[in-house]
């Protein structure tokens, strides 16, 4: 009856399921220049739109004169806030409960803010016309420092919300204040500090950076005037959310909106939120009846859409003389820029920052985060990390080193002493999380052995004796990813589940659709592997589709390492529904009871009569012709997966650097990264994610920073100034792993894309600072550029 | 603005066009000829996403005027394969996971193509320096280096086997 009699193990390999280093399905088009990114989309009659932007960071608009621009041949329209007002689209709601100006309404709040939208026949004419729009500004005092923003007599940045008690995330205490978020037991923490043998305190700023994927943001909006159907192609990490948001703000019925996310050239958090460009392109196509394309320039991208971090943190840690940590206290001033457009689950103004106790068993903790407005671009996105997790992880990993230095204890030893032990899982952290699984001591010991940690410390001591600088940085981080349980997490009231829909065709091949959207992670490859292992159809016979809201089931998108934990779980669950129905059909085909069957790789066999079997292929055909009485035809399923908990990937990283005390240059000699992301679906892709995440960590730790001068000019928003590591600056990465499956995820997977960024920044920064630790240094601000590092050497008098 | 007639060879085919002198080569390729393989990542010649081959040299087509390419020979990623047969570099990138989002890939392929034409046996350092005008935000370069070595093996060059 079977078409193949190969042994089970062989058939299992042939599926290319979970664990297989399957080559990627998406590559064929990319290596031949046949990818389809948003700027590659050419609809007949497309016109091009772009912004007139504000040169000043804070000012009143006295007048806008667009007459000359409008007179230029080829210019079709110039939109200003006045034109959007009748449509009520001059402001739009943000995901965080605030509002953001689509086009400046009488006032500009940051440099390069969108002031007018010019639409022309092509990009060249559009660029010419932008130069012809004359805008007169009355400049106002500018605030770029969040501490200054909270001064009692600080100028008011957001007059539109002046006097409001809340802008969506709780009570405000100052005109430039957005929210206070407090978690933990203050009294217990204060008490622990009062009774502690040792305390340490450090002010740590995680600088403002930008995700800067290689493809900038953009869209093509096209309104079909006859059917009233709006189609928007765009760089959307969360296409369904965009559809709902467009429906809510533009007042269009949701079924008349189709959002398509084509191939996306990297996201890293930059492509989650809605931006003024999308709204203006949509208005443009409605007004003109022609498709309107908007694509950011690099400068626009770095200076306006979604920065990350800008967290000004004060950490305090208390411990026993022997190094047992007693308490942690953290205060944060969070600079959100001119509008609160951070993309976190709605109820979490500081995201998952309360993961700040990290991998350590800390009995008391208290955290306060205050969000404030400044005259800087809006944002606060998660740049390759789960919501605010990298800030939290950096804080605790630095504080552990600071404490170690105070106790004159080895930082690895201090970590081992304070780890949450494997026997403590599931572990309830004092700040309210239930960690699902972990084995931190094994991970760190494995890495220490691999790099010969003791040998490195010995070498370091010898080098120090000779006046040379060598640093060893450790990070033993815990992430919290896979948002999330809908009881905790929603966006605009929509629970953060995700979805998968599978259809098996009569000949035994399949298509599966998802609510997520790959931005390079290889979903077309890995999702098929999950399904293949569950239902015994080879990966190559399963088409994966994402990104079209007309066909995909509703989902919340790809960010915060949520695709595998949430949509990957939905894939397994949907596949299990298929298998359950297949079992009923097989029982009917083989004329036995369902319970008489057992599953083997790709078929059901009759227990005790192994030669009696029905393969998935045969069952698929039967599903369309020979179903049991009373059963519906077809073989398909859909699953909306609401995870019972987050997943908690972790890792142990060790980084070794040599610092040139004369020039401040830092050379990464060795970087060893052990990651535990639970069950490993495709080790090749995991390793690729880790290489990429570590390289972005290198970028942040060693060079990236969005600086502003006193009048709000953004300094360095091009790739000339904003650090992008090339193959020359990027070291060789060594990777390793342990596997501690998530107990609540259907296949035990945890998500991995962001771990290397979270752990990498801490390990690199700890290494640089460790190079100076013997000289009494406990803090050096990121990024550790040669100039900054040299300044420290100079201050210590060791650069001569 | 006055326009100029230009004539060039692209992927072995003669092409004639009438363009504004200020039109960049990348726009000619992408907007007028439908060759959207080369991408725009920065417009300032830093990222290399727009890299194509012009008269035997890698150029960043975002900073070359179309008129400068007149009379020249251009090769883009669309011309890299030999019919249905992939160039060893293309196969190497897929085999060694040398790409993720794929946005930098056409530029990387054209750059590494020229690199191996000029120096068939580059060391790892030479490969890294050779692609340092091309930024990749996703892969961390390690697998791109592997992909180039894979292609070198395929092409029978020697460094890769060491
Ligand atoms: S677009 Fe040409 S180098 Fe970046
Ligand atoms: S693969 Fe995404 S930029 Fe290189």
CATH hierarchy, class of the largest domain in chain A? Alpha Beta
Q: What structural category arises from helix and sheet content of chain B?
A: alpha+beta
Radius of gyration of chain A: 28 Å
Let me know the number of strands of chain B. Answer: 5
Mind explaining what this structure looks like?
The complex is a heterodimer of chains A (800) and B (162). Chain A is an alpha+beta fold and 800 residues long. Chain A folds into three domains: 8-35 and 498-641, Aldehyde Oxidoreductase, domain 4, CATH 3.30.365.10; 38-140 and 216-264 and 271-304, Aldehyde oxidase/xanthine dehydrogenase, a/b hammerhead (Aldehyde Oxidoreductase, domain 3), CATH 3.90.1170; 388-481 and 645-795, Aldehyde oxidase/xanthine dehydrogenase, molybdopterin binding domain (Aldehyde Oxidoreductase, domain 4, 2-Layer Sandwich). Chain A is built from 20 helices and 35 strands. The N and C termini of chain A lie far apart (83 Å). With 162 residues, chain B is of the alpha+beta class. Chain B has two domains: 4-79, Ubiquitin-like (UB roll) (Roll), CATH 3.10.20.30; 88-154, Orthogonal Bundle (DNA polymerase, domain 1), CATH 1.10.150. Helix content of chain B is 31%, strand content 15%. Chain B has helices spanning 25-32, 88-95, 105-118, 124-130, 142-155, and strands at 4-10, 13-19, 51-54, 57-60, 73-75. In chain B, helix 2 (88-95) crosses helix 5 (142-155). Chain B is globular. The model of chain B has no long low-confidence stretch (mean pLDDT 96). The interface between A and B is large, with 56 and 58 residues.
Topology record:
The complex is a heterodimer of chains A (800) and B (162).
Chain A: H1 8-15, H2 27-30, E1 47-53, E2 59-65, H3 67-71, E3 75-79, H4 81-84, E4 91-93, E5 99-101, E6 107-108, E7 114-120, H5 123-132, E8 134-139, H6 146-149, E9 177-184, H7 186-194, E10 198-209, E11 218-224, E12 229-234, H8 239-250, E13 257-260, H9 276-288, E14 292-295, H10 298-304, E15 307-319, E16 325-335, E17 364-372, E18 379-381, H11 389-407, H12 411-418, E19 427-428, E20 434-435, H13 440-451, H14 453-465, E21 469-478, E22 490-491, E23 494-495, E24 498-504, E25 510-514, H15 523-535, E26 542-546, H16 563-590, E27 597-600, E28 603-606, E29 609-615, H17 616-623, E30 636-641, E31 650-659, E32 666-676, H18 683-702, E33 707-708, E34 714-715, E35 734-737, H19 755-770, H20 786-795
Parallel strand pairs in A: 1-14, 12-13, 15-18, 16-17, 25-26, 32-35
Antiparallel strand pairs in A: 1-7, 2-6, 2-8, 3-7, 4-5, 9-17, 10-15, 11-12, 11-14, 15-16, 19-20, 21-31, 22-23, 24-25, 24-30, 27-28, 28-29, 31-32, 33-34
Chain B: E1 4-10, E2 13-19, H1 25-32, E3 51-54, E4 57-60, E5 73-75, H2 88-95, H3 105-118, H4 124-130, H5 142-155
Parallel strand pairs in B: 1-5
Antiparallel strand pairs in B: 1-2, 3-4, 3-5
The structure holds FE2/S2 (inorganic) cluster (FES) (2 copies).
One FE2/S2 (inorganic) cluster is lined by residues 40-43, 45-50, 60, 62 of chain B.
């Amino acid at each position: 009856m079977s078409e193949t009699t190969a042994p089970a193990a062989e058939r299992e390999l042939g599926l290319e399921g979970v664990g297989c280093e399957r080559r990627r399905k998406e590559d064929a088009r990319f290596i031949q220049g046949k990818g389809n990114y948003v700027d590659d989309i050419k609809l007949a009659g497309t016109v091009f739109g772009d912004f007139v932007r504000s040169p000043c960071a804070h000012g009143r608009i006295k007048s806008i004169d667009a007459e000359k621009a409008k007179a230029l041949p080829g210019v079709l329209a110039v939109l200003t806030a006045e034109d959007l007002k009748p449509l009520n689209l001059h402001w739009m709601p943000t995901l965080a409960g605030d509002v953001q100006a689509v086009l400046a309404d009488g006032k500009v709040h940051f440099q390069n803010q969108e002031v007018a939208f010019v639409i022309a026949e092509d990009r060249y004419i559009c660029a010419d016309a932008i130069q012809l729009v004359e805008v007169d500004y009355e400049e106002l005092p500018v605030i770029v420092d969040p501490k200054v923003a909270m001064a009692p007599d600080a100028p008011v940045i957001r007059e539109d919300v002046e006097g409001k008690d809340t802008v969506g995330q709780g009570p405000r205490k100052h005109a430039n204040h957005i929210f206070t978020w407090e978690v933990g037991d203050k009294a217990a923490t204060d008490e622990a500090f009062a009774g502690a043998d040792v305390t340490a305190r450090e002010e740590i700023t995680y600088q403002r950076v930008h995700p800067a994927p290689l493809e900038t943001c953009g869209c093509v909006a096209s309104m079909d005037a006859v059917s009233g159907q709006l189609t928007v192609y765009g760089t959307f990490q969360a296409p369904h959310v965009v559809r709902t948001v467009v429906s809510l703000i533009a007042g269009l019925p949701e079924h008349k909106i189709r959002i398509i996310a084509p191939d996306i050239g990297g996201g890293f958090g930059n492509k989650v939120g809605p931006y003024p460009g999308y709204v203006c392109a949509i208005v443009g196509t409605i007004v003109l009846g022609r498709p309107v394309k908007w694509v950011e320039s690099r400068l626009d991208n770095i200076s306006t859409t979604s920065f990350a971090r800008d967290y000004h943190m004060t950490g305090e840690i208390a411990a026993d003389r022997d190094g047992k940590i007693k308490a942690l206290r953290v205060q944060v001033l969070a600079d959100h820029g001119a509008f609160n457009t951070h993309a976190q689950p709605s109820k979490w103004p500081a995201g998952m920052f309360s993961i700040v106790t990290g991998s350590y068993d800390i009995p008391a903790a208290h955290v306060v985060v205050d969000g404030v407005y400044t005259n800087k671009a809006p944002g606060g996105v998660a740049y390759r990390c789960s919501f605010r997790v990298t800030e939290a992880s950096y804080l605790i990993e630095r504080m552990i080193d600071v404490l170690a230095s105070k106790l004159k204890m080895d930082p690895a030893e201090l970590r081992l002493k304070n780890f949450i032990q494997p026997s403590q899982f599931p572990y309830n952290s004092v700040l309210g999380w239930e960690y699902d699984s972990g084995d931190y001591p094994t991970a760190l010991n494995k890495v220490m052995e691999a790099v010969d940690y003791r040998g490195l410390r010995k070498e370091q001591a010898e080098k120090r004796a000779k006046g040379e600088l060598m640093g060893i940085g450790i990070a033993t981080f815990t992430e919290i990813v896979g948002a999330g349980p809908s009881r905790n997490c929603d966006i605009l009231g929509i629970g953060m589940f995700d979805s998968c829909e599978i259809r098996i065709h009569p000949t035994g091949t399949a298509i599966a659709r998802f609510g997520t959207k790959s931005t390079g992670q290889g979903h077309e490859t890995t999702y098929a592997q999950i399904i293949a292992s569950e239902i015994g159809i080879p990966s190559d016979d399963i088409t994966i589709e994402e990104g079209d809201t007309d066909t995909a089931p509703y989902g919340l998108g790809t960010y915060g390492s949520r695709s595998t934990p949430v949509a990957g779980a939905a894939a397994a669950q949907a596949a299990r529904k298929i298998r359950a129905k297949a079992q009923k059909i097989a029982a009917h085909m083989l004329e036995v009871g369902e319970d008489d069957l057992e599953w083997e790789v790709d078929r059901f066999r009759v227990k005790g009569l192994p030669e009696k079997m029905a393969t998935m292929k045969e069952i698929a055909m039967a599903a369309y012709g020979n179903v049991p009485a009373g059963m519906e035809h077809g073989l398909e399923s859909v699953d909306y997966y609401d995870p019972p908990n987050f997943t908690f990937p972790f890792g142990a990283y060790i980084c070794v650097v040599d610092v040139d005390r004369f020039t401040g240059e830092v050379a990464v000699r060795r970087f060893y990264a052990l990651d535990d992301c639970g069950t490993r679906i495709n080790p090749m892709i995991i390793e690729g994610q880790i290489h990429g995440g570590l390289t972005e960590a290198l970028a942040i730790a060693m060079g990236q920073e969005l600086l502003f001068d006193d009048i709000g000019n953004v300094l360095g928003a091009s790739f000339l100034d904003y650090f992008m590591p090339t193959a020359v600056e990027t070291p060789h990465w060594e990777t390793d792993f342990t596997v501690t499956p998530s107990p609540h995820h259907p296949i035990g997977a945890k998500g991995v894309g962001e771990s290397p960024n979270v752990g990498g920044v801490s390990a690199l920064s700890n290494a640089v600072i460790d190079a100076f630790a013997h000289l009494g240094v406990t803090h050096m601000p990121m990024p550790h550029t040669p100039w900054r590092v040299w300044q420290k050497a100079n201050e210590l008098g060791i650069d001569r | 603005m006055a326009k100029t007639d230009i004539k060039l060879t692209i992927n072995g085919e003669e092409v004639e066009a009438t363009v504004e002198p200020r039109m960049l080569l990348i726009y000619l390729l992408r907007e007028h000829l439908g060759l959207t393989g080369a991408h725009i990542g920065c417009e300032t010649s830093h990222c290399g996403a727009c890299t194509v081959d012009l008269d035997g040299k890698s150029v960043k087509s975002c900073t070359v005027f179309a008129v400068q390419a007149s009379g020249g020979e251009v090769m883009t990623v669309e011309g890299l394969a030999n019919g249905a047969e992939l160039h060893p570099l293309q196969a190497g990138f897929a085999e060694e996971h040398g790409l993720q989002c794929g946005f930098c890939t056409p530029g990387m392929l054209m750059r590494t193509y020229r690199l191996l034409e000029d120096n068939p046996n580059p060391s790892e350092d030479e490969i890294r320096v050779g692609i340092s005008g091309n930024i990749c935000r996703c892969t961390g370069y390690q697998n791109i280096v592997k992909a180039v070595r894979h292609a070198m093996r395929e092409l029978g060059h020697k460094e890769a086997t060491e």
